[in-house]
Design goal:
about 600 residues, alpha+beta, Butyryl-Coa Dehydrogenase, subunit A, domain 1, seven-stranded mixed sheet, two-stranded antiparallel sheet, 9 strands, about 55% helix, globular
Length: about 600
């Protein structure tokens, strides 16, 4: 029996990453079609091998350090935990921030989806640390899309190099999701800049000592702006002015004391006549910000998947080592005092539940990232239209579904440890605490559900959803072989049903708009289970093809097929429950008066 470490030690799942990229999603063909021929298998393998090494050897050992030390706030300055700053310097020296950056501004020009693979390993090894460079990705994408040439030369080049980091500043003390209530002001200045005044809260990586400058992307209102969300503009506000290096009028008033992610500074920022620069058209800041938000939501989806992966690695090692009772069918290790707990069916349930969320989630996130590649790099308008529709539907599903199930997986990992899981020294409770935020920030599960059902599906009269069900239909049509029947039949039934009851919900919502709100979360969870079924069917198909070709790694592919069966038999049936709830109507939620809900 192996000896189990008392703390989770991350091992980059390089074999599974390669399997998803090459065999399930055919990344090589994808990159060739984009014209990214430099993204060869040799280069991809080198990137993930070196990235995995950095995650394992540099970041993973700092995960507990960050949790125990946290960030220290003193008179407006934030000191990050021991080793964080040095790790960031290694990250920059290794050229990792520039991986997917534009070559014109010092980047390596590789597809963004390769950066997502790197981010997965970084995030799983140490989520708190990974948030510092992670917030820069959205800032880079926003500048790439909407920045002027001068802004790109000034800010984008330094974000790509990693010399500076970025943030997104939306939330204010009186408003979170409802940005129509935003009060931060932007007054025009004589030199063409703007004077930004207001307070922003919950700004991840908003203040730290890891980089020379922090570029804040800030939502604010111009003096003549219309009310509501139509009157919001987007501004670049650096911590230090780029022209002369002087301190700008943005200061950190405090950092939050949080349940988890202690190693990342969540800052309250005060903007007092801070010098800022308009990015994108006036009063269209919310539209521009969605470039940032979509990436952030996909990144948050990764937190759920990463939690499942790290929890799975730790709890599997523990289950193989921990002895308790005998297998119900008789001793499996008679030479020992008891059998390892991995022989027990319920422990298997806990482990396999984590596995299918981690590995199915990996396929979903990589697929979404590849749609982003197409959207920004393809020359075919019809292909881009499909990619945009797929991302529109799948991004809120990935964000909400994977964070909800990822948090569940983290709790399942803790459960494998029994009482030891509740003890800090084993590290499992940290995964639970760190992951809980994922269902909240970048839009709660309820907000993602309203976006999916109300805005993306019903708002497009089902057109965007049909792009998703169409790829499922094509897959089922092209894989009607006997061995795939156990996956194709239920998937076909569910994607057809998905479109059918969506129309019924639309008719109900036309009569009473509360029906959409009452059904939204269950609709999203149903959508998530069906979507993951599609990816597990693809995983099973790739595995069957490898076995038919005579692979030498037979056990690996057989295990994938077993995991797919587990998902279809023991996880996918949850979709039926969500369907019954969502179709039950809003009355059971909305009839009691608000003052009758509590028990007083």
């Amino acid at each position: 029996m192996q000896s189990v470490s008392p703390m989770p030690e991350y091992k980059a799942p390089l074999r599974d990453i390669r399997f998803m990229l090459y065999e399930v999603l055919d990344a090589e063909t994808h990159y060739q079609q984009l014209g990214a021929e430099e993204a060869s298998r040799d280069l991809i393998d080198a990137i993930i091998a070196e990235g995995g090494k950095f995650a394992e050897e540099v970041l993973s050992p700092l995960n507990r350090v960050g949790d125990e030390e946290g960030c220290r706030f003193d008179a407006g300055e934030v000191k990050t935990p021991t080793g964080f700053k040095e790790a960031y310097r290694q990250y920059v020296d290794g050229g990792w921030p520039s991986l997917a950056g534009e070559t014109a501004y010092g980047g390596q020009g590789l597809p963004e989806s390769l950066s997502v693979v790197l981010n997965e390993m970084v995030s799983t090894a140490n989520w708190s640390w990974g948030m510092y460079p992670g917030l820069s990705h959205g800032a880079k994408l926003t500048l790439h899309e909407y920045g002027s040439e001068e802004q790109k030369q000034t800010y984008l080049a330094r974000l790509i190099s990693g010399e500076w980091t970025g943030t997104m500043c939306l939330t204010e003390p009186h408003c979170g999701t409802d940005l129509g209530l935003l009060k931060t002001r932007a007054e025009p200045a004589a030199d063409g800049s703007y004077s930004i005044s207001g307070t922003k809260i919950f700004i991840s990586a908003g203040e730290h000592d890891m980089a020379d400058n922090i570029v804040h992307i800030v939502l604010a209102r111009l003096p003549d702006a219309p009310g509501g969300t139509k009157g919001i503009s987007l501004f670049i506000v650096p911590k230090f002015n780029a022209d002369d290096g002087s301190r700008n009028g943005v200061t950190c008033g405090s950092i939050e004391h949080k349940m988890g992610i202690h190693g990342n500074a969540t800052a309250l920022l005060n903007f007092d006549d801070a010098r800022g620069f308009l990015i994108g058209p006036a009063n269209e800041g919310l539209r521009c910000m969605f470039t940032f938000m979509n990436f952030a939501r996909l990144g948050t989806a990764m937190q759920g998947m990463a939690a499942a992966e790290l929890s799975l690695q730790s709890s599997t090692a523990y289950a193989k080592d921990r002895l308790a009772m005998r297998a119900l069918s008789g001793p499996k290790f008679p030479e020992q005092a008891a059998d390892p707990i991995i022989v027990h069916p319920d422990v298997r349930r806990l482990l396999l539940s984590q596995k299918v969320i981690s590995e199915g989630g990996r396929a979903l996130i990589y697929f979404c990232a590849m749609q982003g590649d197409i959207l920004h790099g393809s020359g075919d308008e019809e292909t881009k239209k499909e990619a945009e529709a797929l991302m529109g539907v799948l991004t809120p599903i990935a964000k909400a579904f994977l964070t909800e199930t990822g948090f569940e997986a983290a709790n399942q990992g803790l459960q494998v440890f029994g009482g030891h899981g509740y003890i800090a020294e084993w590290g499992m409770e940290q995964i639970v605490r760190d992951t809980r935020i994922a269902t909240l920030y970048e839009g709660t599960t309820g907000i993602q559900a309203l976006d999916l059902l109300g805005r993306k599906v019903l708002g497009s009269r089902g057109e965007q959803l049909r792009y998703v069900t169409r790829i499922m239909h094509r897959f089922c049509r092209d894989n009607e072989i006997r061995k795939m029947g156990e996956f194709i039949r239920p998937l076909r039934r569910l994607y057809r049903e998905w479109g059918g009851f969506t129309r019924k919900l639309g008719l109900k919502a036309m009569r009473d708009r509360e029906e959409a709100g009452a059904a939204a979360v269950d609709y999203l969870m149903y959508s998530g289970y069906v979507t993951l079924a599609y990816f597990w069917a693809r995983i099973a198909d790739a595995s069957l093809r490898a076995l038919a070709a005579g692979t030498e790694d037979k056990a690996y592919y057989e295990n994938k097929i077993h995991a797919a069966r587990f998902y279809f038999k023991r996880i996918l049936p949850r979709a039926k429950c969500h369907k019954e709830i969502m179709m039950s109507g809003a009355r059971s939620l909305m009839v009691p008066d608000a003052d009758q809900i509590d028990s007083q």
